[in-house]
Amino acid sequence: MEQDSTVFWPEERFHKRLEFEGRLIAGDKTLEDLHIIVQYSLLDNAQIKAIVIGNNDTFASLVEFMGLPVPTYSIRLTCKTNDLDEIISDEVYIEHVHGRSVSEGIRFIVGELIFYSLTVKRKFVQIDQPERHLTFYLCGPRQLWPSYGVLSKSFMGEVKYEVENSSLDIAPDLPYTVEVRPVFFFEHDTEGHNDITTRDVYALHLATTNPESELPDAEYVKRGISLADDLTLLVSFVARNWITWFSYSIQTATGITTLIRATRECREMRIDTNYLPIPLHRVSAFLKTAVSMLRELKSSGVDLSMPIAYVVNGNQLKYIQERFSVFFMALEILKDYYATGKNLYCILSKDDFRTLRVKLIPFIEKQVASKLDSSKICGKLGELNRESLRSLLDIMFKQYDVSWEDLYPAKSKFSLIDTRNNLFHTGKQFDLQFLSKEELRLRSILERLILKMLGWHEHPYAPHDAIRLWLIS
Fold it and tell me: What's the sign of the alpha-carbon dihedral 461, 464, 469, 473?
């Protein structure tokens, strides 16, 4: 690694660069002593890319590895340094290899890799640090987080920043404090000059003074990931846009472990906070209520993660038909949770319906001349004992005090099921304005229902009053 590696791949701004000697693994086969350079973004969930530098022999070995019947590869650090103690990835994809060099002695980029996850461990001499810090770096819209940072630069060039309103009061029984705050990164614009460019990324920061004997590092990370997943899911629901974490670092008295992962696309964008289902100033209060209820429901077998994910993802889709379909899938899941938990699917008990069925079959066989047709009809008798979708929705809406009448013109009927049937089971062409209204009605009902299930009983702005007036016009 004596040659300047920036000749092969210049350093990218606001990226972390790792250069190491590593081993590529595929099942029981290994490729040793690879010169690998990885660069990953400090600011967002951009792809984790790497290159392999070598000669024609390295190229030939990499080509052979590409032909192995494995979906992904693993990489391990083989030569520890003062800075790196361990590099681990079990989700590496060989994107492509480059052509063979005409000169045997030339070193070149023989291949490019994509990492779907990367763990980097750095150890240092143990320090007297009672706190352990766990930081999750976030991507996606940031306006819903209550904190903000103020960056200042003195006339002497000193840069400092202050963060306000960063504490997040989630639950008093958590063994750590919780903050969401911007983290600033600095880079010199030109080597040897004092001009500095600043970038920031929002982060969920946990800190604990509990000793490792009470809260081991692995358990601390596991709980932290669970909290980060729950918080970002709930904030995504309110934002109607995906917000997630792409990296975390845990700092202890003996070292720092960082994990970087590939995630779904989360665009850094400004959203119109006037149309959120919860007012911006009440988001923190909502999170305090919703995190506890989300976990309580999950422990009872009602996991809202999937229906919430459908709702968030539905908001990202381009076509009205797609959005309506995904929203209705979310409604079906919520209905199933409720009906299963309350044992509502059957109108009669199994024994009572079996008795009724025995009486119906001879009657049908007598009335229908074709044995094949009577057999088909008898095969569908079980559906007679099933509660209708509309009936189950009415019961669930009443339980959670979710109204739908204000989303329709006066004296209109509930039309979403008919719209679903026509969209899913026919080739009928829809008036797009009608379908657009139906999609917004469905989304509004879903948001009202999920908010109630999460214990949020304040007035939901689902939809905004201006949109509701259009729906009833």
Answer: negative
> What is the crossing angle of helices 320-342 and 305-316, to 10°?
170
377 CB-contact burial (10 Å; exposed 0-12 / middle 13-18 / buried 19+):
middle
Name residues whose C-beta falls within 8 Å of residue 119's C-beta, 6 or more positions apart in sequence: 86, 87, 88, 89, 257, 258, 259
Helices (H), 343-431: 350-367, 371-379, 389-399, 416-425
> Is 290 in contact with 450 (CB distance < 8 Å)?
no
Cβ 236 vs Cβ 312: under 8 Å: yes
Residue 75, both tokens: 């990489």
Beta strands in 98-242 (DSSP E): 108-115, 117-123, 132-139, 148-153, 159-164, 177-188, 196-208
Residue 204: burial class (beta carbons within 10 Å; 0-12, 13-18, 19+): buried
Distance CA 352, CA 382 (A): 12
User: Please, what is the angle between helix 305-316 and helix 217-239, to 10°?
Assistant: 50
Cβ density class 358-369: b for 16+ within 10 Å, e for less: eeeeeeeeeeee
Quick one: DSSP state of residue 167? B
Mode of pairing for the β-strands spanning 117-123 and 132-139:
unpaired
CB atoms within 10 A of CB 396: 20
**H or E element in which residue 312 lies:** helix 305-316
DSSP structural state of residue 153: E
Three-class SS state of 384: helix
DSSP 193: S
Distance CA 357, CA 331 (A): 31
CB-based contacts of 211: which residues, under 8 Å, 6+ apart?
A: none
Residue with tokens 């081991």: 216
Tens-of-pLDDT digits for all 473 residues of the chain? 556 778 889 999 999 999 999 999 998 999 999 999 999 999 999 999 999 999 999 999 999 999 899 989 999 998 887 778 899 999 999 999 988 777 777 889 999 999 999 999 998 877 777 899 999 999 999 999 988 777 676 666 666 777 777 888 887 678 889 999 988 888 877 665 667 788 889 999 999 999 989 999 999 999 999 999 999 999 999 999 999 999 999 999 889 999 999 998 888 888 998 899 999 999 999 999 999 999 999 999 999 999 999 999 999 999 999 999 999 999 999 999 999 999 999 999 999 999 999 999 999 999 998 999 999 999 999 989 999 999 999 999 999 999 999 999 999 999 999 999 999 999 888 899 999 999 999 999 999 999 999 999 998 899 999 999 999 99
Q: Which of 77, 82, 71 is nearest to 119 (CA)?
A: 77
